[in-house]
């Protein structure tokens, strides 16, 4: 199906969601958080139907386009023709969150090396940086239950996430929830940065200084204002300009 064919068959709102989601995939690859064809970013299609966009299973993140994204329902069934399948393990996690969280218009999941490394640490994310204190203001954890293929894990995923924006899947990776692809990406940028800083700080071998609890509390209030307000929208246009320079073609 060509770009023009897809664009002609969907609303202007859906096409914008497709362009933003394709950009998010390519930005994840650009920043080195991708894991070949594995992991996923999903976005809800604007409108009354519970339809979602997700990556065509088999395409690398840096080659995904707006027209190649697969449109599916909450059961992971295609509702628009596509030559590509959908990874069932990926949508088990995403469908659970989309169904339980109306605000979860975009769900981003990564297996980045830094993220998995910190997810394997018993204490999880430590309050040792400004980035980590922002993430910890809205952070939840979920214990590893194996490759996410079983529907019976969904209630536990939803319960553990609650109303949080950042989700650390133990021994597995990172996940963020956003009201847009821009918000989910900004949240993941902070999450990944916090994990990278922690791994590097620990490698130095010196005793780590933790951010004080009172400062963490102050940062929590400020973080909510930034992350749930204008943060993603402010950074997104610049990220798209960067992507246009580095890897254009996502809007095809």
Description:
The chain has helices at about 5-10, 10-30, 90-100, 115-120, 130-135, 155-160, 180-205, 215-225, 230-245; strands spanning about 40-45, 50-55, 70-75, 105-110, 140, 165-170, 175-180. The protein has nine helices and seven strands, in the order ααβββαβααβαββααα. The protein has a seven-stranded mixed sheet, with helices on both faces. The relative contact order is 0.16. It has one domain (about 5-240): L-fuculose-1-phosphate Aldolase. Helix content is about 45%, strand content about 10%. It has about 250 residues and is α+β, with helices and mostly antiparallel strands. Helix 7 (about 180-205) crosses helix 9.
Brief summary of the model shown:
This protein is an alpha+beta fold. Helix content is 45%, strand content 12%.
The CATH topology assignment is L-fuculose-1-phosphate Aldolase
Strand content: 5-15%
Residue share in helices? 40-55%
The CATH level-2 architecture is identified as 3-Layer(aba) Sandwich
Could you tell me the radius of gyration in angstroms? 18 Å
Placed side by side, the strands forming the largest sheet appear as 3-2-1-4-7-6-5
Number of domains: 1
Morphology: globular
Order of helices and strands: HHEEEHEHHEHEEHHH
The major beta sheet can be summarized as: 7 strands, mixed
The chain-level mean pLDDT equals: 92
Query: What is the total tally of β strands?
Result: 7
Uncertain parts: none
Overall CATH class: Alpha Beta
* Helical/strand content category: alpha+beta
The multimeric state of the shown protein is: single chain
